[in-house]
């Protein structure tokens, strides 16, 4: 398995292009199941998770082709051959469950494997199930699979989500666009990826109001057409690279992003002492302070601080002056990066979902182990500012979410290389 070697190399300077959002694309691709006509996605990121979704959709009979070096994905669902999402694919990626809502809406039946355990917590499906049942689906759990059918078709109704789950909002939205009558999704997730999905569905002819707020209203239509849609920028990739100067010093401009995507994250960056501003082409971040300041962080649904930037933030707070308290409220067990950062000299105490970080002057490079996608990148960032050499092992997670990471960081002056196994 590949590893990545990082060494501090002085301040960073230059531009980093931000790709289309992985999480938006993973919801947009299954939207093709809702229409017989082609769906074309531009600004798609080139990531292994996208390839996994491609394999899943092909297994259902969807024609998927990657054009323009993978940046454009052309999908066509005119001849579906299966309504079953197999365990072998779903276990690799939880987002596979996003075929459930659209398959039910179009075919009236779907069999989707439960995703199983995940390194960052239990991640059950109860909210998805309750919402689809409210729309008239009958869902049974057998042999590790959800067997869903809608014998009388889906019918619009009021659906109140127990928690503003991103995936459950997406599945419900995709089911509701072809349901009979009006669906009102209450306590809907407000993430930019939901807005992007709603925008694409609207281009396909869906009637949706309120995406980006807690109440989404959908007027069901009989059929959807094809469309071409530009995938929104990846706010997690953006936030990750915005943090790079916090570790190495200097200034980077992230091309293609904007601050509205990041909610509470931006304010925290300013509080620690980074200079953050929008530029004509994106977002510019500069570190001129000698030492950054501690800050408390609580992860919350958008527009709160994103859980997918928590590991990177923790890595930064390891060398901030003072004590920071970081509370993870979205996922249980999402602090696997803490012991690895401690191997680099960080002072972190974890009690349940809360981590108390006492800033040290500098981290020291060490061999460390990547345990999940965001944990991997937090260790690479830590290595950018640490004394000596850091080798991050088992980096395959990284390729799920970051396109050409070494290349992008090298272009702004980082000393980083991939060591093929
Ligand atoms: C999405 C993102 C992921 C991000 C997460 C939270 C994608 C492909 N992935 O994941 O990167 O970290 O949002 O911002 O978009 N839950 C339940 N029951 C359910 C569904 C969820 O209890 O039926 C719980 C989960 O266990 C978790 C929390 O709700 O603790 C948030 O999950 P959710 O918002 O659904 O995240 P995902 O859509 O899986």
Summarize the structure.
With 421 residues, the chain is an alpha/beta fold. The chain has helices spanning 22-28, 48-59, 87-90, 100-107, 126-134, 166-176, 192-203, 235-248, 264-272, 310-317, 337-343, 373-385, 398-401, 405-411, and strands at residues 3-7, 12-17, 39-42, 63-67, 72-76, 84-85, 109-113, 138-142, 145-149, 158-160, 182-186, 207-209, 215-219, 227-230, 250-255, 275-278, 282-287, 297-298, 323-327, 347-351, 354-358, 367-369, 389-393, 415-419. The strands form 6 sheets. It has a 4-stranded mixed sheet with strand order 22-23-1-24, with helices on one face. A 4-stranded mixed sheet has the order 2-15-17-16.
Give a written overview of the molecule.
With 421 residues, this protein is of the alpha/beta class. It contains 14 helices and 24 strands. It folds into two domains: 3-18 and 234-419, Enolpyruvate transferase domain (UDP-n-acetylglucosamine1-carboxyvinyl-transferase, Chain, Alpha-beta prism); 22-230, Enolpyruvate transferase domain (UDP-n-acetylglucosamine1-carboxyvinyl-transferase, Chain, Alpha-beta prism), CATH 3.65.10.10. It is 30% helix and 26% strand. α1 (22-28) packs parallel to α7 and α6 runs parallel beside α7. It starts with a strand and ends with a strand.
Distinct bound molecules: uridine-diphosphate-N-acetylglucosamine
Major beta sheet, specifics? 4 strands, mixed
CA-based gyration radius: 21 Å
Question: Which band does the percent of strand residues land in?
Answer: 25-35%
CATH-wise, what's the superfamily of the largest domain?
Enolpyruvate transferase domain
Structural class: alpha/beta
Please give the count of helices: 14
